């Protein structure tokens, strides 16, 4: 199939035909008058007809130009309608969020009351999934995912740089004995996420201990189950700080070692680019950014506290 005229040339022709002026078309499209003239000449050469009568201070459409102008105008109007349909929100008062079970229960749900108070007109629905939704229909507006931020054909906004912290139940530690020896003897509770094997290796190197994840007899697919297992005193696990800092602050969990590792994955707000233009998604993004600033402040305080205790 032969390649047609460029969209840029057709846009230049459309505006020039509307204004009857190459100069005004150039001003409206933020290009030079020479660029508009060249686009029109290219289009005329492709079609083999003259589209404008050139006069001293103005131009006028020829009969062929008038015919093309009507067709091009209809085409651009149809494009504009299609774009508006894609960007429109059929349910502006309903916000559908997809996220993982662990993030929903440990981070998002405790903050939903604040989110609802900011936008009382919204009905907020949270759906749970370990995998990213496809956005093929309108059932989900936006997703909050734990990953690398690389999602084909989707836009992502980073929310938080996550850190993995080794934690156990306080009852497993005897502070009068060697902490390193006790930690080395603890059962390891594992998450099946693809980055966790390397995370444990990095933690072992940082701590100077042999923490072999291959020895683990407990493996799950969701961090929420790991949290419950650690709270039950079943062993040592490596968990995202963003999900467990309230438990650490309430001393329900402790970090027995003054080491941690940067997570390979971080939290992202993910959606088609058009969705980020919707007011309710803008509001959610703003809320999440502010809330994660608080989580970051909690991390900074935790890091200072552990560093101070290790020096003492």
Automatic annotation (TrEMBL):
Family annotation (InterPro entries): LysR-type_TF_proteobact-type, LysR_HTH_N, LysR_subst-bd, WH-like_DNA-bd_sf, WH_DNA-bd_sf
Keywords: DNA-binding, Transcription, Transcription regulation
Any GO BP annotation: DNA-templated transcription
Keyword field contains NADP: no
Residue intervals of the HTH lysR-type domain: 5-62
Family: Belongs to the LysR transcriptional regulatory family.
PANTHER family the record matches: GLYCINE CLEAVAGE SYSTEM TRANSCRIPTIONAL ACTIVATOR, HTH-TYPE TRANSCRIPTIONAL REGULATOR
The name this protein goes by in its record: Glycine cleavage system transcription activator
Native species: Reinekea blandensis MED297
